[in-house]
């Protein structure tokens, strides 16, 4: 006799699919399930095919895609397909956003201008201080060079006087020596 094989099939309890028209808060209750550990099966079996969990995850994914699609298209529904009051509200919001952007840009440009003015003032003051410092250093250098020149002049004049005095004293001494001890003392070289 032939033995029949029996495969255990998990129960097919599919979760409810949330419709797009339902509130999206209901969607938050749909959590992702692990297909290898289904919540309704107490023990893991040889058969790992869990249709209910896969179905649940697929429906959850579809709900998320629908929600994203709905959210994306809701942003464009009002300005084009809404009532006249909705369109006017949309235009009003756009105008307010533009005014806010213009105001923010004006504030930003004023701050930039103020910072540039402060930087220019700082640079002007630094330049003025640098010019003053350079002028003072130049004056100090000129005074030092003038003093150096004057001291050198005094030293040179003193050296010249000393040389002249030494020469004159040497000449007097030679004259005196020649007078006392002439080269031609016998007078024959005349």
Strand and helix layout:
Blueprint: H1 24-27, H2 51-81, H3 84-180
Helix pairs in contact: 2-3
- Our count of helices gives 3
Rounded mean pLDDT score: 81
Largest sheet: none
Q: Summarize the helix and strand pattern as letters.
A: HHH
Summarize the amount of helix as a percent range. Answer: 55-70%
Give the total of beta strands: 0
Gross geometry: elongated
- Provide the gyration radius in Å: 56 Å
Helix and strand composition category:
mainly alpha
Number of domains: 2
Alpha carbon gap, first and last residue: 177 Å
What would you note in describing this structure?
It is a single chain. With 190 residues, the protein is mainly alpha-helical. It folds into 2 domains: 24-81, no CATH class; 83-176. Helix content is 69%, strand content 0%. It has 3 helices and no strands. The protein has helices at residues 24-27, 51-81, 84-180. It is elongated. Residues 4-10 and 12-24 have low confidence and may be disordered.
List keywords for this structure.
190 residues; mainly alpha; 2 domains; 3 helices; 0% strand; elongated
Tell me briefly what this model is.
By secondary structure, the chain is mostly helical. Helices cover 69% and strands 0% of the residues.
């Amino acid at each position: 006799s032939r033995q029949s094989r029996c495969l255990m099939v998990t129960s097919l309890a599919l979760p409810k699919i949330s419709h797009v028209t339902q509130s999206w808060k209901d969607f938050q209750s749909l959590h992702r399930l692990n297909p290898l550990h289904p919540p309704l099966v107490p023990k893991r079996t040889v058969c790992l095919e869990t249709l209910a969990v896969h179905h649940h995850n697929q429906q959850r994914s579809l709900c998320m895609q629908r929600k994203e699609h709905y959210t994306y298209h809701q942003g464009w529904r009002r300005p084009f397909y809404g009532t006249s009051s909705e369109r006017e509200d949309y235009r009003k919001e756009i105008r307010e956003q533009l005014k806010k952007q213009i105001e923010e840009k004006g504030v930003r440009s004023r701050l930039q201008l103020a910072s540039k003015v402060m930087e220019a003032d700082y640079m002007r003051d630094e330049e003025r201080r640098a010019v003053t410092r350079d002028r003072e250093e130049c004056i100090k250098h000129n005074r030092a060079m003038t003093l150096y020149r004057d001291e050198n002049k005094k030293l040179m004049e003193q050296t010249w006087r000393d040389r002249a005095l030494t020469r004159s004293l040497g000449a007097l001494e030679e004259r005196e020596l020649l007078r006392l001890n002439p080269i031609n003392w016998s007078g024959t070289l005349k």
